[in-house]
Amino acid sequence: MLNRNFLSLFLFLLPFFALAQKAQIRGLVVVDSSKQPIAGATVALLTQNTQAYIRGQQTNEKGEFVFDEVDASTYTLRISYTGLENYLKENLVITAGNNVNLGTLELTEASQTISEVVVEGRMPDMQLDIDKKVFDVSQSLVSVGGTASDVLANVPTIQVDSDGSVSLRGSSNVRILIDGKESAMAGSDINSFLQSMPANSISKVEVITNPSSKYDAEGQSGIINIVLKKDARIGLNGSVTASAATYNNYMAGVNLNYRDNKFNYFGGYNFNRRNNVGSSRNDNVVLIDGQISDDSQRTISNSENTRLNHSHTFRFGADFYATEKTTLSLGSNISIRKNDRLSDIDFDYFNIPEFGSNSSRTSQQYEDDLGYDITFDFKRELKKEGEELTANVTFGSDTEDGTNEFSQTYASTRKDLNRNNTTTENGKNWNLQLDYVLPLGENHKFETGYRSIIRNTEDTQFSLLQDTITGVFNPDYRVSNDFDLKSSVHAVYANYQRQLSDRIGMQIGLRAEQAYLNSIYYSKNPDAAPGTAEIRAEQDYFRIYPTAFLTYRVGEKTDKIQLSYSRRVQRPRGWQVNPFLDLSDETNYRQGNPNLLPEDIHSFELSFAKFYEKWNFISSAYYRKVFDMVQPFQYDIDLIEDIIGTPVGNETYMKWENVGKQDAMGFELISKVNLFKWWDVTANANLFYNNTQPYDQFPTNSAENFSWNGNLSTNIKFTKTTSAQVRGDYRAPQNSLQGKMYAMSGLDIALRQDVLKGKGSIMFNVRDVFNTRMFKFESNLPTRYTISENRWMPRMFTLSFSYRFGIQDLSKNRKENNAMPEDMGGEQF
C-alpha cells in the first residue's frame, strides 16, 4: 500500500511543477601581472550580510568557474590561491533568471608567507548541507598517526565501539563507502579494514543520512563515504609522513602525484603497525527464582588481549584527459595485512563442581589477508551544459587465511581442552554502474541510471580437537564446514529535481531493486544426519524505494528547512546468515541464521540550517520505522543440548533473529562558532528514543531507550605556525532489548608546530587523556545476569612528522576527482 501511495504521488505531482528561474554566475581567474589563467583557485560564494559560506569550487584548467542554480540575493565572492592576494567582490546582486558573467578577475601576487596564505585560502573544515555533512578531516590533529577508525570517531554524529564497529545516530546498520564505492578488499570485516587504513590517507568524510534514489537503498541510518586524498597539480607533488606511538605503534607513508598535459598519475604506499592492547572482565550469574543467591552458579573471567596488525597499502592509478569533455581513469588499491590476536583469560567458578574452582584459557589467532580492487571510470560531458554520462566498472578480491590455537586448562579433574582451527575466506565483488544527467532547463534536471553489485564468498572452517586420553588431534565435525554465499542486487533509478518558486524546491525519485541471496552450508561430517549435511537458503525479492525532498528557504537565502523521506533496506551480512555453531568458547555459544529477512526501513527527517557571521548550525529531527529488525537473541541453552551435550548450567546461546519492529526518533544539532580569528568551537549533540517491540515468538518484553551522545572540539591557533586541538565526547547509558550499555566519556588533545616555511609539520597528540573510555554492558534476563567491561586501548601518546613538497603551475587545475557527487539528496534545487 505504501509503495502504491508514493508512486501515485510521484505521477500526480509531475505535471504541476511550474517554477521560478534561478541564475548563473561565471568568471575567469587570472594572474594580474602575466594574465595567465589560474587553475585550482578556490572560489567561495558567501552571504553579503553575514559572510556565511554557501558553496565553493575550484577553477578548471582554463581558470574558469561556474555556479549554477543560484538563488536571487546579494552575495560576496571570495577567490584565494596560494601565493596570491585574496580577491573579494562584494554586493554581488543576483536576480531571478538573469545570469551574471563577471568576466576576467585578476589576482595580485601576495607578500605573505606560504603558511599565512594556506590558512586563509583552504575550504571550511565543516560544510553543512541539509541532507549531507562534509567534514574535512585532513586538518584533524587528534587523529594524526592513527587509523580510519580514529578519524571516524572524531566526526560528529559517528560513534566507534571498542571492537571497531561504526554507528551513525546510534545505529550500527550504516553503509560505509570508500571514494563512493564499496571496498571489496575489506573482505567481510570492514571494521578491521578501517583499523588498518592510515588516517593520513583520508581527505574528508561525508555523512549522508537520507540519500537520494541515485544511491543504494542499503543502510538503515544512511551512508558514510570516506574520500581519499588525491592531488592533481601540474608537475610532481607529494608528501611523506611518519609517526610513533606508545605500545610500539608505528606508521609511515608516502603519497605522490605527477601531472602533464594529458595524464595525471597518482600513487602511494603506507605501512602501519597497529598494536591494540586491552583488557576485559565478565561476570555471569545463573539466577534462582529470578534472584542472585549464595547458591547461584557464577563464572567470573578476566582477560588480557593483544591485537597486532601489520598492514601494507598500495594505491596507484592514472587519469587520461582524452578531450576537454572526456576523461578516462584507471586505478587500483592493494592491501596486505597480517593480524595476530592473542588472549589470556582466567576463569573463577562458583557452585560449578564440574569445572572446579578455576581454569585458564589461551588463544592465539594468526591471519594473513590479501585484498585488491581495480577500478575503471569513464566521464563524458555531452552537448547541453550539465548533460553528463558516467560509467564505472570495479572488480575486487579478498583472501583471508587463518589459524587459531586454543587451549583451556582446568584446576579440577575435568580434562583439558585443546583445539586447532584453520579458516579460509575467499571473496569477490563486481560493480557495474551507469549514470546519465539531463538538464531540462535553467532550474530543473532529470537523472537516471543502472547499477549491479555481485558478491561471492566462500568460507571454510576445519577444526581439530585433541583426544584427552591419546593426545591425538582428531577432526571435530561439529565445527567443520564450508559456507558459500552468493548475493546480487540489480537496480534502476530515476530522479527528478525542480524549483516550485523562489523559496520552494523539490526532488522526487524512485529506485527499483531486484535482490538475490543464496547460501549453502556443507557439513564436513561424513555421518551427518539427513537434513544437516547440507542446508540451503534462498531469498529473491523485488522492492521499490521512493525518496522525496521538499525544501523551503526562510529569511535570508542561506537559511533553509527541508523535509525528506526515503525507504531503505538493511540486508543480512555473511556471518549473520551462516548456520555454523561457534563452540570455541564453551560458556558462550553463537550461531547465524540462514533464514534472516532483510530489514525494511522508512526514514523521515525534518532539518533546519541557519548561518550567521560567526556562528552556524544545522538541526535535524528524524524518525525511523524498522520492520523485521535483526539482532542477536539469547536462548535457553537446552536448545542445542544435542550438539554440546548436557549443559553444566552457566552456558549462554545466542542466535541472529528478526526479533521484531522498532520505532526510533531523535533530534540532532551540529554547530560551529568562530569565537575569534584564532579560536573556533564545534559541538554536536544527538538525543534519541527508540522502542523495540519483539514479535510474539520471542519471550521478552518491549524495550524503551532514551539516550544521548555528544562531542565538543575546539581549535586554537596560538601563532601563525602553532596550533592546538582539544576534543571531548560523552555517550549516555542506553537500553537494548536484552540489556543496557553504561555511560562512557573521553578526552583527546593535540599540538601542531609548522616548520620548514610551512612545508613540514610536527604533531603530538594524546588520546583518552584520563583513561576513561571503557565499554560496560549489562544483560538482565529472567534466568541469567551478566555484566561485562571491555577496554581495547588505554591512553596513548603519538608523535608525528609530515613533509609536503612539489612544483606548482598556475595553468593547470587541482581537481577533487574522488569526491562523491554533490546531489546525494535534495540540495541542488
From TrEMBL:
Residues 146-222 form the TonB-dependent receptor plug domain. Residues 381-803 form the Outer membrane protein beta-barrel domain. It is a multi-pass membrane protein. Its main location: membrane. InterPro entries: Beta-barrel_TonB_sf, CarboxyPept-like_regulatory, OMP_b-brl_3, Plug_dom, Plug_dom_sf, TonB-dep_rcpt-like. It is found in: Cell outer membrane. GO terms for cellular component: cell outer membrane. The keyword Ribonucleoprotein does not apply. Residues 1-20 form the signal peptide. Keywords: Cell outer membrane, Membrane, Receptor, Signal, Transmembrane, Transmembrane beta strand, Transport. PANTHER family: PLUG DOMAIN-CONTAINING PROTEIN, TONB-DEPENDENT RECEPTOR-LIKE BETA-BARREL DOMAIN-CONTAINING PROTEIN. Belongs to the TonB-dependent receptor family. This is TonB-dependent receptor.
